[in-house]
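Usage

Read records sequentially. Each one opens with the input sequence:
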Amino acid sequence: MTPLVVGVSGINAVDNPGPGIGVARSLREATDLDVRIIGLAYDAMEPGVYMDWVVDDAFLLPYPSAGHDAYYQRLRQIQERTGMRVVIPTLDTEMPFFMQHRDALAADGLATFVPTAEQYRLRGKDRLDELARTIGLALPRTEVVTSAEELERAVDRIGLPVMVKGAFYKAHRAHTTQEALVHYHDLVAHWGYPVIVQEIVQGDELNVVAVGDGEGGLLGRVGVKKMWITELGKIWTGVTIRHPEMLRATEAFMAAYQWRGPMELECIVDGDTAWLVEINPRFPAWSYLATGVGVNLPARMVRRALGLPEPTPPDAPDYEAGKLFVRYTYEIVTDMERFQRMITLGERGDTP
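and closes with the structure output:
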């Protein structure tokens, strides 16, 4: 049987890890799928390039900001070289390209499972007030600003400390107005307007990873409570949790927005109050936890994208609470030739 070739981005398994390695591991563990994983990297130093027990081959992509034409042509080159049939983008910066070109990619034989541009816009951080009302969650005091003066006034109204966030990417805690201004200018320089200023609320950090079927339903979901996070705010240790309000809100989001593809719901929960922090339009870096407890979301998504039958026996319908997730570091020693090939040729060179 010819393997199913799947491209996965976000293989930068560093201190601020991308989701790609967890997605690739999940696909490998799907007993009904014979997969060959193509790592789509943006830098030859991304550790996933060299994790050949997870990634079968790796290729460099231009950054999406380099232009859609160059990005599209590189994907097509990789497809012709490898026989790639599915692409799973896992980074926020890739989403505009894949949403805009998903029909053209499908016509070229490259399946994706991503939301529409309108769905993506409606869950943006600048629309959190409307989103929170729609799915029945509370929202910390939040203001959308487009100038330094507006930011200063928002900080005065909300009170310090605050979170300063880009509309689609990055979030920083600020303890002073000057610190908030520094973060504001950095976000504008990298990601443009608007910028979001949000009250910091106290409670447990609870997240849900889920995949929507595009018709208002779920392909699966798993909730986690963060127990230990890094200085960059990334989960290091967590435990599965079945929080009724979080799971209900996830189902409400899917029903209201007809979401197609992966998402992460982030909340702060204090007693009976669940505060919406944001919704990320992709798999989170911790999403392998779902596979570890029997809910293989990447495999379910690939089957749906290609119209493949469900496995026999079927995946676990749900998950248990109280399963521990622990991240760890690991070292690889490999040949310098691999790095040189990535630099000079833009590929690891393991594809026949």
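Summary fields computed downstream for this record:
- The chain has a mean pLDDT of 94.
- The longest strand covers residues 218-229.
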